[in-house]
Amino acid sequence: MKPGIELRHLRSFVAVAEELHFGRAAARLGIAQPPLSQQIQRLEAGLGTRLFDRTNRRVALTDAGRALLEHAGRVLQGSAAAVEAVRRAARGESGPLRVAFAASVMFLSLPRIIRAFRQRYPEVRLDLREMPTGLQLEALRAEELDIGFLRQPDPDPELELETVMSEPLRAAVPVGHPLATRSRIRLESLAAEPFVLFPREIAPGLHAQVLALCRSAGFAPRVVQESRELYTTVSLVEAGMGVTIIPASVAKMGWTSVRYLPIASLLARTRIAAAWRTDRDRPVIHSFLEVARARAGG
Predict the structure, then answer these.
(1) What backbone torsions phi and psi does residue 27 show, to the nearest 5 degrees?
(2) CA separation (Å) from 140 to 150, 160, 164, 278, 279?
(3) pLDDT at residue 83 in the model
């Protein structure tokens, strides 16, 4: 659009071109007729040509006016679409959003959170990534993620943390283990058992929590095997390599040769927090958090 030509001039032009009457066009625009005439004159001056042939009896478009009318509608529609796109982004209804989650969180409320969010905000481009808590923390600090779902995170001055889900921890033992028939277990019963455990860097907070639980029961776990993947950990328990302590939702993975025993301790519960950078105040992040709060369900 030529410098000096304003969108309001184009709106006035379109109204006059469609009505072919300055009085009716002014009424349609909700302005007086003299300001409308002045806007058309400015538009014609800016373009260097007449857009209307005016007489006392009639108003008609010139060839230049007809050419402008052909394009003015598209310009105004594009402008309106741009304004609405800006408003949707400002309301957190559009734009990209990078969300990461530990694999086991998919056994909890996250699928219904994602489904509800996509239904409510179809114009947001969700980039979903499966990542352990340790890698999520690194990605959040590097601004490579917008939101992470972390297990048992420690306070971090760079991050906002909000607990959205929690679940019990379970002791996992092979089905033929002497403890497998119990309805619940005291952690002291595992003091002499070999453990299969994930490395600290995979989930620092949960790793520390498991060790603290064992310490509270009077022992340090004897780790004979480390595993970076949940399904490997459970498979190794099934194979008789040792026992482990894992989130209860892992039972949904379906191993029939492993028993998941409730732990007799009020501390045997892990929380999942949504995390985002304190300096990343994007509206779309808050839209996702609003849905997560409503759909998490504990």
Answers:
(1) -65, -40
(2) 11, 11, 18, 10, 11
(3) 75
